[in-house]
Amino acid sequence: MHKQQSPHAAPAFDAELVLAEYMRRKTIESMAGPLLSLIVHVLLIGCIIFFYDPEPPLAQSSIELEMKELEVKELDQKELEKLEELEELAQEVVPTVERPVIVTDSSDALSDAAASISDFSDQIASTDDSMNFSDVLDIRANDSPLKLSALYGGRSDEGRASSLRKFGGSNATERAVIKALEWLKKTQNANGSWAPSQQPAMAALCLLAFLAHGETPASDDYGATVQRAMQYLIKHVERLPETTGGKPKVEPYTNGIVAYALSEAYGLTKLPNLKPAMEKSLFLLIDGQQKSGGYDYGYAKAQRWDLSVAGWQFQAMKAGYVAGANVEGLEKGIELGISFIKDVAYSKTHQTRPMGYASPGGGSWGMQGAGALCLQLLGEGNSREAKTVSKLIVERHLPAIVWSDPGLLISGAHSNPMYHWYYETQVMFHTGQTSWKKWNDKMANLLISNQKADGHWECPPGLKPDPATGKVGNPGNYDHWYTTALCCLSLQVYYRYLPTYKMPKAIAKQEKTALDKLDEELGLSL
Fold first, then answer.
1. Neighbouring residues of 141: CB distance < 8 A, sequence distance ≥ 6
2. 119 pLDDT above the threshold of 80
């Protein structure tokens, strides 16, 4: 079988150059576009005032002048707001934002969460329409760092605060997130990874938790942690073969999660050293996709497929697409992924759990969540398949498990309930406000009340023992980091997804204002 060769060769990683490049880009982002536009607008207005003559000489009356009529109209509210923003930028080029002080130890965390959820109940609409983020596949992130920040507004201090208020988060949920990030910071390995085993996958999951909070190598509190994790993942990808047919074999679970984290990292920072690693890991998962659009262990191309493996590949594809990855076959891979979930993994006749694990229908609740979430992320949130699964989750699988119940056992790491809830939480958030409130009422309190004092979480007991042995399973020696990352990402859903993936068409296709059009005519638009 003919294999493509990856064209991506990663340069040596230089931490100082990377940080310098990042700070340069951030400075340009803050200053260049608005100031250049402001200067040109001021010059134009000055020229108009200087050359305008209200009473032209009589001699000019005999001269025929060919002039284009200039249409003058009142500025609408959006244009006035843009002018005000430009004036503020001229006065203060680099605004400073104070980081909110979050107390990391409080006995009233649950009461705060309950109060916030009660307020959320009063604020939300009675329908799900206003949180529908479907039909967004055709929106690609602009590759320019000057415009990237708008995509990640929810991860700024102000964006987080606004999204927490809007979608039912609270001081208690954010306290739990900060405690988790602090624990992850303290337990990072010297090489930038986490946990004693499964280090690349754990590094990627933990990095995703920091990125979801808007943390970059330039962050005051977590910059060094994030930088070490990025550097570790870059080196990991550099050691991988160029194709999935090479040796050693590429492990698809790990590669999918790593590609996901690198894509978000590049999308958030545009650090140049991340791009080759991101594109190589994405190339490998495209190379390993089956003709049906599915995936299997070892990126095997036989008839067997595995929705659990595929879920991470599809999440990575969308993250890479949004980040602007230049990987041949990426968009085709997304199209195949949609058809795989809808036409292969989904069973129209299975009434209770239509998504399947390795055959149509009958999969676990985690597989229901994985299939529905990937459809939502890939622009098919309004499909019958996604809506059917979302309805079943909210009606039949609201979280009610008690962490400490000794009668509820796990059969292994794969049966960790947080794996299921990680997917389902996101599905409920993207389904709509009515469904999200029912889920958030239970999930937020459940996570907050079971966080350990030092900030980590442990695997909750599974819903039943191993059917083969009847014994308690082993969640793995990487469990604390795995469960903590999934819990943290679930509590960050309030502000994580809107800037990362869910870009309503109105953002990209809204009517241009007069100043936007003038920028285009002058060649200033980016």
1. 148, 151, 267, 322, 323, 324, 503
2. no
